[in-house]
Amino acid sequence: MQVVVPFAATEPKTRLADVLTPAERTAFARAMLADVLTAVVEAGHEPTVLATAPLDLETLDLEAAVRDAGSVAVDDRPLTEAVNARLPERGDGGDDGTHIDPVAVVMADLALATADALEALFSAAADVAVVPGRGAGTNALVVDHPEFRVDYHGASYLDHREIAHDVGATLETVDSFRLGTDIDEPADLVEVLVHGTETDRAPARLREFGFELERTDGRVTVARLEESRPK
Amino acid sequence: MQVVVPFAATEPKTRLADVLTPAERTAFARAMLADVLTAVVEAGHEPTVLATAPLDLETLDLEAAVRDAGSVAVDDRPLTEAVNARLPERGDGGDDGTHIDPVAVVMADLALATADALEALFSAAADVAVVPGRGAGTNALVVDHPEFRVDYHGASYLDHREIAHDVGATLETVDSFRLGTDIDEPADLVEVLVHGTETDRAPARLREFGFELERTDGRVTVARLEESRPK
In angstroms, rounded to a whole number, what is the distance separating the alpha carbons of residues B131 and A150? Predict the structure, then answer.
């Protein structure tokens, strides 16, 4: 199985602009990418970062084993096109033209990803296995069908169900809070701090930036220490 | 295993007040409760609704087998106290004083609950198994320890981890998007319509009320047909 991790290498995570400077957003996005790559390698696979611009894995905070297992492919086309160019086609991977090598696509902002959660996805038996995020996004999927193609525009989880149906592919929805939580908006930062482990880079970055959990009566939010806020 | 489903029988789901009338909120909350009870029975258990006021299961839209398997216990105390009164104590369930019967607590607003997702929770081996929701809530848990007690006030998932640690109970976090999605706010209604099945009552109610998925370019939202809006 190939595991592709799409990554917006320039101006990532603009929806966090209210709480993070551009430099912080870049550092945070790279920390999440490093956590995702680590989880993929721990799950026994060699991830390919599908980056919109050149990226040197040496500049990420990665264990040597993860860095060595990873590679980068640059493709500046929109996400859907770049991913589709990586999906299996009939004849890939086997001389007889029938076997194809499945391709997994795991978004780089799944900061809560763990090897266990990824293994549950990677071991799904269907032609297409999808992990939906909130709002019918597609946070991760595995494609083991030569005709299935992605369409990340709009309600992609619903689209992917339809596309699978249209090409005669079986589809399984994989139930995971960890993989179903993509980190896009300020409210999502709570999840990084609540569920991240001590060795994860993304929560460490947030703490460096001065974020901490604020436990009020009704719920948990993140707060940024006054003196650490961007001026 | 006992399965307890806490249910606010009066004025439920006030955070949906912007989009649903009080009567609609009551009907929707009861539809979600019926879906949760059905999933519990499909998972092989007999649910007890822990209601804040008297509730007649005959008035819920339930299959006969589910209605027959269910029961109601009324407890008008705050959630934490009412649940703690139901948790196992040392000596429960066995003559020798060592065996206890585990108790599961599944919230009534987990509209996406399925038998599969519940079975994954119910089969957890730890003394305490917790399904967190967004914002560090506790959406469901199974307690198989005589000293563990819940505290739903505030960041309950974090509190429950601490409480388990303090009483020497092992804790497992169960990873489920379906059980991790509680339906509290208008934005959550999208998930009911995206992930509900054809036989589920909660999405059927929303459609009766005039809600439908609105698939714009960027994301999916729910929209309510103009003529169906409360005046």
Answer: 31
- Min distance A166 CA to chain B CA atoms (Å): 19
ipTM: 0.92
| B90: confidence class by pLDDT, cuts 50, 70, 90 | confident
* CB contact residues (below 8 A), chain A span 202-231, against chain B: 213, 215-221
In a domain, A201, yes or no: no
A107: closest CA of chain B, how far (Å):
17
**Cβ distance of A220 and B117 shorter than 8 Å:** no
End-to-end CA distance of chain B: give it in Å, rounded. Answer: 46
The verdict on residue B140 lying in a domain is yes
| B197 dihedral zone (left: phi>0; alpha: psi -120 to 50; beta) | beta
Label each residue of A113-164 as H, E or C.
CCHHHHHHHHCCCCCEEEEECHHHCEEEEEECCCCCCCCCCCCHHHHHHHHH
CA atoms of B217 and B14, how far apart (whole Å) = 30
Question: Is A16 contained in some domain?
Answer: yes
Containing domain of residue A150, as a range? 2-184
Q: For chains A and B, count residue pairs whose Cβ atoms are closer than 8 Å.
A: 89
What CATH number is associated with residue B41? Answer: 3.90.550.10
Which residues from chain A sit within 8 angstroms of residue B137, using beta carbons? 219
Domain count, chain B: 1
B10 Cβ contact list (under 8 Å, min separation 6) = B52, B53
The answer to whether B132 faces chain A, any CB pair under 8 Å, is: yes
Contact B200, B33 (CB under 8 A): no
Judged by a CB distance cut-off of 8 A, whether residue A155 touches chain B is yes
Is B214 inside a domain boundary?
no
Confidence tier at A100 by pLDDT (50, 70, 90)? confident
Judge whether A68 is closer than 8 Å to chain B, CB to CB: no
